[in-house]
Amino acid sequence: MSDPDIRMTDDVDVVVRRTPRFGTFLLLGVLLGFIAAGVLVVLPVDTSVLTSDYSLGATMALLMLLLGLVGAALGLSVALILDRVNAKRARTYTVRGEYVARKAPAAPEFGENGNAAAASADDRTADGADGSAPAADGEQEPNGDVEQ
């Protein structure tokens, strides 16, 4: 018969609430600002006194910049208000988690130099296990990584 697994249960309180996507509100505000700028530029109003120094394109670009920033600020403000309203409607649930601790696999045996393989190439060379005699004092055996 196998070893019994250790079972643990844990109760966790989880808060669930809806949150707006701030990037979406930002982009929507910028888009509405651009549309408002386009409408203001093509309105049939005599602005020849005010816009004598600027072309229609420059006026459009300036209005798009300003109204785009205003639209972005308004979009983020709406997202913040919706986030605060939804925070009040948050619900708390209790979730039960079950964990099963299983027996860990047997640890590998370590050789003399700390490597995971008990009979690594360095250990065999030092012990003479590969069929050669161990190196004498002061004499270095060639390593496989070094050119001779």
| Number of DSSP E strands | 2
- Bin the strand percentage: 5-15%
Query: Regions with pLDDT < 50 over 5+ consecutive residues?
Result: none
Sketch the major β-sheet. Answer: 2 strands, antiparallel
Structural descriptors:
alpha+beta; 148 residues; 3 helices; 41% helix; two-stranded antiparallel ribbon; transmembrane
Question: Topology, pairings included?
Answer:
Elements: E1 6-16, H1 22-42, H2 56-88, E2 91-101, H3 121-127
Antiparallel strand pairs: 1-2
Helix pairs in contact: 1-2
Care to describe what's here?
The chain is of the alpha+beta class and 148 residues long. The protein has a domain at 55-87. It contains three helices and two strands. Strands 1-2 form a two-stranded antiparallel sheet. Helix 1 packs antiparallel against helix 2 (56-88). The longest helix is centred in the middle third of the chain and has 33 residues, at 56-88. The two termini are 57 Å apart. The model has no long low-confidence stretch (mean pLDDT 77).
